[in-house]
Amino acid sequence: LIFIMISFTFCGLCFMFALSQNKYSLLENFNIKNYSIKYLIFAVIIIYITINRIIFYLKDRFIIKNLLYDLEVNIKDNNIKVKAFLDTGNELVEPITLLPVIILEKSIIPNINISEKEMFNIPYGLVNGQNGYMKGIKVNEVKLYKNNASEAISKQAIICFCNKKLNINGEYKALLSRGII
Asked: Which residues belong to the signal peptide in this entry (predicted)?
């Protein structure tokens, strides 16, 4: 099937280039009198680049799909279910309890009120050298489901909120720390 698709695409490109070099009329037969090899090579290059980008995109989607989890967390009697992405470079932990930190978009729970005594200050450092503190709260249990499975991984964790969107496409609303798995 893929071979047939590639063959038809290649033939279509070659025919398009042949039409651009030779005169064509509906009243006469179509004859290819001159055809430059550069157009044949150009067609091969176009097909190679297209197939290469399609394969790269499919591999990327497969990798991302394997790193997506369904996250269920209960914060102040608000039961939240969102898609979460396992960020393998995220080693964020709360320094005293060593609990893993989950970063959640603030837009999911905009009106949550948390007192200062419930807050944890979690230090973070970015690759570009910027560092600071994030405020988070401890939740007793988070449940992670892999690929819509019925079995969940239950862990204690710290939830931090961020004001920015974590993903432009909206595929996930939370970032998981590597320590949560």
From this structure: none
